């Protein structure tokens, strides 16, 4: 940036702060010396102050009436039962495998979140999750990439979204671990945007001397930042057409599942989503539905209770399709979402923030604005939902303990690996830990081919590596 432009930007910031009545920030700036002022203002040049005040005012003046809306269960490709469905599944698998082999799919893992509920210091991806070896999420995903690249002789880019808060630690973690055996230039990192957090009455918040309190702009920010980073256009120019999307905190994700990719391609969808049956009407999971004639996902907290709890005459949940946050996107669709400014709506949420007031640390509620990746679904010309088994694909780590915690995820991993061993003919004693590295086998079918288990009894903790 030229000096002149930099100066203009900084002057603009001061003007904006005045327009939005942020006198406490201006007073703070006036107390800083020239060098400190420079650092402070420089940090602000990366933040969209106009956007955050516009969002605050929109939410404040928002009419609470939801207007006319019409919700019905969405069409979902359910687990195949009939011959026709099984044949379509096989066809999908072949189509998905072809797409991978032809170097048309890249993988995006979003890992920019704050992991507040888990309460772990450091990026969530560095959390040790595997049951026997204590491998991190990042290692498990990298090993899947290695195994997939080998299986399909494919060049699969691994793209990781970080945020300002965890970018350095994430990159450093890969560097220190030698990229877990992946070629270094195969991994692309990009940072998502940050937005200033606001007090409940709509003011900017100081975080120490040099910066404002901020938050990452939500997982939906991935669809904006992948474009702004230039990675989207680079992938398209290299001939990639699809993106497999998942979150960092689900150790059961089957990266690049060819059946799922195949359904996405054969149905001509611009975005596809894996769904699981909701456990019960209380489960805190987004719901895949049809809203005013378009597929959509509604966050559990935004869906009316009557819909969340609706059951049919047999007692089955009507809106049963729970979001797993595993998607496939067409790259051109993401490009279109960005063509005339980023298209996704912002949501407002309260979060707890520790701030220093009069030399003591206080926890207080603040507002954050973010976008959700699934809000892209209604923009798609065609969307598709695919049912998968929860026990094989979905066990997110959200909380420190209880539901959706490291303990439940490890239990689910062990249960799944136990099934693989039993499918290979082995007998497995209960209460032991099992871990199968993706390098050894990517799925049950691969495992059964490799491990001859008939007559084998497994009675102590076991690890299958490469
Ligand atoms: P969650 O919404 O569960 O948030 O993110 P979180 O950061 O993991 O945890 P809490 O809510 O602070 O406790 C689901 C996935 O989306 C990513 C997270 O890294 C996780 O993989 N995410 C979320 C982002 O990449 N950026 C965001 O701004 C928010």
Brief write-up:
The protein has helices at residues 3-19, 23-31, 34-44, 49-60, 83-101, 137-151, 167-176, 221-228, 231-237, 258-266, 305-308, 331-339, 390-393, 406-423, 444-450; strands at 71-73, 105-110, 158-162, 187-191, 194-196, 206-207, 211-212, 214-216, 242-247, 271-277, 287-291, 294-298, 321-330, 347-357, 360-370, 383-387, 427-428, 434-436, 457-458, 462-464. It has 466 residues and is α/β, with parallel strands linked by helices.
Question: How would you sum up this structure, described in words?
Answer:
This protein folds into three domains: 3-45, no CATH class; 71-404, Alpha-Beta Complex (Spore Coat Polysaccharide Biosynthesis Protein SpsA, Chain A); 405-466, no CATH class. Helix content is 34%, strand content 21%. The chain contains 15 helices and 20 strands. It has helices spanning 3-19, 23-31, 34-44, 49-60, 83-101, 137-151, 167-176, 221-228, 231-237, 258-266, 305-308, 331-339, 390-393, 406-423, 444-450; strands spanning 71-73, 105-110, 158-162, 187-191, 194-196, 206-207, 211-212, 214-216, 242-247, 271-277, 287-291, 294-298, 321-330, 347-357, 360-370, 383-387, 427-428, 434-436, 457-458, 462-464. It has a seven-stranded mixed β-sheet, sandwiched between helices. Strands 1-11-12 form a three-stranded antiparallel β-sheet, with no helix packed on it. A two-stranded antiparallel sheet has the order 5-8. Helix 5 packs across helix 10 and helix 14 (406-423) crosses helix 15. The protein is globular, with a radius of gyration of 24 Å. Bound molecules: uridine 5'-triphosphate. Uridine 5'-triphosphate binds at residues 110-117, 124, 161, 192, 216-219, 221, 247-249, 370, 398.
């Amino acid at each position: 940036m030229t000096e002149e432009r930099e100066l203009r930007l900084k002057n603009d910031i001061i003007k904006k702060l005045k327009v939005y009545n942020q006198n406490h920030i201006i007073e703070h700036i006036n107390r800083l010396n020239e060098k400190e002022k420079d650092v402070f203002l420089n940090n602000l040049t990366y933040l969209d102050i106009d956007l955050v005040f516009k969002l605050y005012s929109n939410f404040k003046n928002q009419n609470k009436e939801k207007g006319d809306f019409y919700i019905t269960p969405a069409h979902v490709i359910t687990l195949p039962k009939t011959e026709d469905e099984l044949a379509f599944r096989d066809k999908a698998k072949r189509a998905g495998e072809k797409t991978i082999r032809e170097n048309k799919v890249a993988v995006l893992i979003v890992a920019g979140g704050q992991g507040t509920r888990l309460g772990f210091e450091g990026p969530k991806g560095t959390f040790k999750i595997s049951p026997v070896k204590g491998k991190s999420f990042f290692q498990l995903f990298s090993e899947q990439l290695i195994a997939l690249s080998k299986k399909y002789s494919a060049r699969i880019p691994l793209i990781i979204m970080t945020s300002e808060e965890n970018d350095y630690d994430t990159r450093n973690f890969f560097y220190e671990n030698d990229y877990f055996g992946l070629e270094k230039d195969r991994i692309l990192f990009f940072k998502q945007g940050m937005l200033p957090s606001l007090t409940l009455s709509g003011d900017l918040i100081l975080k120490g001397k040099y910066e404002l309190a901020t938050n990452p702009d939500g997982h939906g920010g991935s669809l904006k930042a992948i474009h702004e980073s230039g990675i989207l256009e680079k992938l398209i120019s290299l001939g990639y057409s699809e993106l497999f999307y998942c979150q960092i905190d689900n150790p059961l994700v089957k990266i690049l599942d060819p059946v799922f990719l195949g359904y996405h391609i054969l149905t001509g969808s611009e975005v596809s989503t894996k769904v699981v049956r909701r456990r019960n009407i209380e489960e805190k999971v987004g719901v895949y539905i049809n809203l005013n004639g378009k597929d959509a996902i509604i966050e559990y907290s935004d869906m009316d209770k009557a819909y969340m709890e609706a059951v049919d005459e047999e007692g089955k949940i009507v809106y049963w399709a729970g979001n797993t946050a595993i998607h496939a996107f067409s790259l051109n669709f993401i490009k279109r979402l960005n063509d005339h400014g980023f298209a996704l709506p912002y949501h407002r949420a309260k979060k707890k923030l520790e701030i220093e007031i009069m030399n003591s640390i206080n926890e207080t509620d603040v507002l954050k604005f973010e976008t959700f990746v699934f809000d892209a679904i209604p923009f798609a010309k065609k969307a598709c939902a695919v049912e998968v088994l929860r026990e094989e694909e979905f066990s997110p780590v959200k909380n420190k303990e209880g539901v959706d915690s490291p303990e439940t995820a490890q239990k689910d991993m062990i249960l799944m690996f136990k099934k693989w061993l039993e499918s290979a003919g082995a007998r497995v004693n209960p209460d032991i830990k099992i871990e199968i590295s993706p390098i050894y086998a990517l799925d049950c079918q691969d495992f059964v081919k490799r491990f001859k288990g008939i007559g084998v009894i497994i009675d102590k903790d076991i690890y299958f590596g490469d």
